[in-house]
């Protein structure tokens, strides 16, 4: 059980779209926005964990097109986020480095931040495949309902704890200042990373 949880948290802390969203919303928005994104990500993570234990892999094998469609939709959504980030840098060409106004794509409050985190995770087919692989190994040995509930709670708690830590770190005043000072360079780098990540996902199903 704890081996599965260890593998889970190791995958969670690896850099990816979720990390980018949480860190960016925390640094350029607020700690509340960072937590809202975190809750969106973790809610979907818990749902995927539960579905994986209930036999999500069987459904995917029955409908193989589902995986390809999910990958493409997820990639398109990541490209949309990358464009929104890049657009924010283009709109700030004449803005001074000391400006700390929130970016346009963060408008909409906590609800939109939650939905952004949830959509990013729910459309990430690699997350689904990862969940299935972990829980398939976990279920290789007969498990009670209690053990299955416990592993979902442990993994979900670890995921939330990690992104909560990221939120607190990136919402600190020092990190915020660095983000605002180098926001154009950072945002362009993040947009490039998301674009390459999305294109790689599309290439994998073509």
What distinguishing features does this structure have?
10 helices, globular, 206 residues, mainly alpha
Strand residues, percent? under 5%
Please outline the major beta sheet.
Answer: none
Summarize the helix and strand pattern as letters: HHHHHHHHHH
Helix percentage range: over 70%
Rg over alpha carbons: 18 Å
Global geometry: globular
Output mean pLDDT. Answer: 79
Q: In angstroms, what separates the terminal alpha carbons?
A: 36 Å
Number of helices: 10
Structural domain tally: 1
Outline the low-pLDDT stretches.
none
How many beta-strand elements? 0
Helix vs. strand class: mainly alpha
SSE layout and pairing:
Elements: H1 2-12, H2 17-28, H3 31-53, H4 56-62, H5 64-90, H6 109-122, H7 125-138, H8 145-170, H9 173-181, H10 183-205
Helix pairs in contact: 1-8, 2-3, 2-6, 2-8, 3-6, 3-7, 3-8, 4-5, 5-10
Description:
With 206 residues, this protein is mostly helical. The chain is built from 10 helices and no strands. The protein has one domain. The chain is globular. The model has no long low-confidence stretch (mean pLDDT 79).
In short:
The protein has 206 residues and is mostly helical.
